[in-house]
Structure formats: structure tokens, C-alpha cells
């Protein structure tokens, strides 16, 4: 049965019977006994996070971060990588040498020559998407943005911020962009250049858009290389794809303009971070010299967290390509294990090939969703088999889910949802398309 978190008492201890007694997190003047009080609050919060991490399944975050404790002495310093990472600055408290090393590593991974490569360490995937799509708009000022309906919300936010005409493309049940619909809409707008947001792993289903097919579709619709720009949102799969046996799903050897990836996902970081990469010749369109900093301004953010570059640099050194490859292999196996366990239990589920994201029916109980930190969309939820997720965690989750599910649906007044439309008839186990049965806990 789902347990209510003991550490979650940190959320409620100051509110007995729903009445606010005192807010422990209120900021007060420091006094003699204040330090002990602050230490107690932080210790309780650490316990709270530790407990939550034991059943954190629904989001694209790697919580296996113990090695980063080695970097704690650097918290004594303000480290700011303001401006272009390849240009020094009169602000000397920066870590740009670490940042450039991280960029060189990703440049090799994504197959772009060092003298052609430009990028920076971002605050996360959203900033990477903003930077990539801004470059596309600056290079093709009258271009139209094409993106699938299952793209990350940041893409639609970027369209609003940059005043871009946005054409939404249908998707297949896998979450992959429907190139037939893309073709139709490209042909309706042949007079304007195309800025394409390509998903190398959609947020909810992990669907991967077919880069080669998208390029072929553009060419067949009459768009030459100078009339389209492709940004690849590879938030999670940017560090998965290169380590797959069949090879990477994208590369700068193909006519793409930019790529963004999140550093706090597969690699893992104590803070949101990521990398955006593009071709050096494109960045001149937005570069501007800032005299008082003695550097170029060409990033979405001005001041940038210099610790992020060090965290990523350290993790890449500790892990190496071999370690990341092993993580990918383990995560793929765990995702397949979960998919098979759910199917054996008669639960509608789907796992895209070479992916960590297992999609299945949404539990009807809010406390269950909250306990397991699940992310939901419509009738669906998902578990992402990140490196911190163990087989034991997945076993406990499935056993808990099956046991609770028998209780939720035992009266027959409500039935498990049909997911045929969302994940395909072959993956749906509802009473119409599959077993639709309820099973014992083991």
C-alpha cells in the first residue's frame, strides 16, 4: 500500500488542523539561538528530500549525485560566466575554461568540427530551445516555425516571445511528428522559409522525430538548405542517442542548425543546466560587444551560473563515455522490465524503442500519484527509468500499483481508461482492446 511520507511532515508540522501556527521558513533577524534553529530546518529538509528521492519516478532527472559533494568547497565563491564562453572577460570570477572543455566534449559527441562549433552551458533545456529558435528567426527573419503538438511547452513560449508564426503538426501514436501532415503544411507556405523544431525524444512519450525523413520532406517540398533551419530539442536523448548500437539519431554532419540538451537529466546535476550548440558562423547575427565587461553578449541570459559548467565538467570526467554508455544500457533494460511487468499485469503501457519513458494508464488516486512523483497528461502517466531508479524501486512501484488498482476498480463503477487513441490499440489493455482484468499484488 502507498505510504504517506514521514519526511513530508515538514510540509505540515506548522499547520495543525489546517491552522497556521508559525511559519518555520519565515526570515527573521539573526540571534544567538537562531543558528541551531536554522540547522534543524535544513536537516529536516534534507531528510525530506532523501525520502522523496526513494520513490521519484515521473520526471527526467537523475538523482544519483553523491560524487558532486566533492565540489562543495566551491560554494564559497560567486562564479559568473557572463557573455561568450570563448571570450575572456574583465569579470575574472568565471569558469569559462571548464565550460569550453564541456563544449568540446559535446562537439565531438555530436560530430561538429572544433573550429565550426559555438555553444554555451545554459540554465536548462528551455534556455537552449530559446537560443536555438532565436538563431533560426534571426537567420530567416520571415520564417515560419513548424513543431509537433507534443513538443515541450518552451517551444510554444519561444514562438510567443519571438513573435513567430507557429504551425502545429500532428503526431503519430509514438509521439513522433507526422511527416505527411508536415508535407501538407509546408506546401501551403512555400513562399516563406521553414524553421523546424525537431524533437529527439518528446517530453511525455519519448517519441523521436525522424531527422532524415524531415530533411527529405523539406527537400521534396522545394526548400533548399538556405531556406530552412532545424533546431533539435534533445533534452534527454542528446546523451542517449550517441550511445545506441544503431548510432546517433542526429548529427551536425546533417543540415541542422542547433541542438539543446539538459545536463541535469541523464548526466545529473544538483542544479538545472544544459548545453546549446550551433554553427559558429550563425552566432555573429546576435553578437554584440559589451565594453564594461570586455566580452561579447550573445547568450539568452546575461550572467550565467559558472558552477554549472564545473558540475558538468566534473561529472563527464567521472563518468566518461564508458560510464554513460553503461547508464544508457541499464536504463533501457529497466524501462523494458517495467513495460513487461505492467503488460503482464494487464495494464495498458507503451515504450518507444531505445527509450527510457514508459507510458501507461493514469492512476485515479491523487495520493498515489504524489507519493510516486508521477507526471500526468490526460489519461496517461509515465515513469522515466533514470540512472537513480533501481529494479527494486520498480518492483515496489508495480506491486503497489497493482494492489491499489484492485481497490480502485473493485466495485466496477469505474473502469481503467482506454488508451487506444493515445498509445495504439495493440498497447491498450482496456476491457474493449485487451484483458482489462485486475490481478493480485505479485
TrEMBL record:
Q: Which domain of life is it from?
A: Eukaryota
| Cofactor or coenzyme needed | pyridoxal 5'-phosphate
UniProt xrefs under SUPFAM superfamilies:
PLP-dependent transferases (SSF53383)
* Keyword set, alphabetical order: Decarboxylase, Lyase, Pyridoxal phosphate
Mind telling me which PROSITE patterns this protein's record contains? Answer: DDC_GAD_HDC_YDC
List, alphabetically, the InterPro entries matched.
Group_II_Decarboxylase, PyrdxlP-dep_de-COase, PyrdxlP-dep_Trfase, PyrdxlP-dep_Trfase_major, PyrdxlP-dep_Trfase_small, Pyridoxal-P_BS
Which family is this sequence assigned to? Belongs to the group II decarboxylase family.
Xref: NCBIfam families: PRK02769.1
- PANTHER family for the chain: HISTIDINE DECARBOXYLASE, PTHR46101
Q: What is this protein called?
A: Histidine decarboxylase
What species does this protein belong to? Rehmannia glutinosa
Amino acid at each position: 500500500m502507498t505510504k504517506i511520507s514521514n519526511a513530508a511532515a515538514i510540509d505540515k508540522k506548522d499547520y495543525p488542523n489546517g491552522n497556521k501556527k508559525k511559519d518555520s521558513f519565515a526570515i527573521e533577524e539573526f540571534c544567538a539561538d537562531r543558528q541551531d534553529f536554522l540547522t534543524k530546518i535544513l536537516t529536516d529538509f534534507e531528510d525530506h528530500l532523501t525520502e522523496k528521492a526513494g520513490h521519484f519516478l515521473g520526471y527526467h532527472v537523475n538523482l544519483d549525485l553523491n560524487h558532486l559533494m566533492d565540489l562543495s568547497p566551491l560554494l564559497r565563491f560567486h562564479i559568473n560566466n557572463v557573455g561568450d564562453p570563448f571570450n575572456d572577460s574583465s569579470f575574472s570570477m568565471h569558469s569559462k575554461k571548464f565550460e569550453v572543455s564541456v563544449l568540446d566534449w559535446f562537439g565531438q559527441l555530436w560530430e561538429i568540427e572544433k573550429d565550426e562549433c559555438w555553444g554555451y552551458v545554459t540554465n536548462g533545456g528551455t534556455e537552449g530551445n530559446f537560443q536555438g529558435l532565436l538563431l533560426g528567426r534571426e537567420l530567416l527573419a520571415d520564417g515560419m516555425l513548424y513543431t509537433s503538438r507534443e513538443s515541450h511547452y518552451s517551444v510554444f513560449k519561444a514562438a510567443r516571445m519571438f513573435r513567430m508564426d507557429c504551425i502545429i503538426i500532428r503526431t503519430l501514436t509514438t509521439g513522433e511528428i507526422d511527416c505527411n501532415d508536415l508535407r501538407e503544411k509546408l506546401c501551403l507556405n512555400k513562399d516563406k522559409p521553414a524553421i523546424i523544431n525537431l524533437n529527439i525524444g518528446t517530453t511525455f512519450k519519448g517519441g523521436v522525430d525522424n531527422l532524415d525523413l524531415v530533411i527529405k520532406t523539406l527537400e521534396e517540398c522545394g526548400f533548399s538548405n538556405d531556406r530552412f533551419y532545424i533546431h533539435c530539442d534533445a533534452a534527454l536523448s542528446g546523451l542517449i542517442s550517441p550511445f545506441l548500437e544503431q548510432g546517433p539519431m542526429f548529427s551536425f554532419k546533417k543540415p541542422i542548425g542547433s541542438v539543446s540538451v539538459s545536463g541535469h537529466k541523464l548526466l545529473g546535476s544538483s542544479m538545472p543546466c544544459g548545453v546549446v550548440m550551433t554553427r559558429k558562423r550563425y552566432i555573429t547575427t546576435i553578437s554584440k560587444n559589451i565594453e564594461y565587461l570586455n566580452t561579447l553578449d550573445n547568450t539568452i541570459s546575461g550572467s550565467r551560473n559558472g558552477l554549472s559548467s564545473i558540475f558538468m565538467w566534473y561529472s563527464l570526467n567521472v563518468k566518461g563515455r564508458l560510464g554513460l554508455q553503461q547508464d544508457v544500457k541499464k536504463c533501457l533494460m529497466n524501462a523494458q522490465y517495467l513495460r513487461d511487468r505492467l503488460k503482464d499485469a494487464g495494464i495498458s503501457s507503451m515504450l518507444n524503442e531505445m527509450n527510457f519513458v514508459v507510458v501507461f494508464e493514469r492512476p485515479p488516486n491523487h495520493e498515489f500519484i504524489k507519493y510516486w512523483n508521477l507526471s500526468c497528461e490526460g489519461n496517461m502517466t509515465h515513469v522515466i527509468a533514470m540512472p537513480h531508479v533501481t529494479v527494486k524501486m520498480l518492483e515496489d512501484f508495480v506491486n503497489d500499483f497493482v494492489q491499489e488498482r484492485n481497490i480502485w476498480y473493485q466495485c466496477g463503477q469505474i473502469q481503467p481508461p482506454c488508451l487506444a487513441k493515445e498509445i495504439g490499440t495493440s498497447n491498450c489493455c482496456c476491457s474493449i482492446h485487451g484483458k482489462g482484468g485486475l490481478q493480485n499484488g505479485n
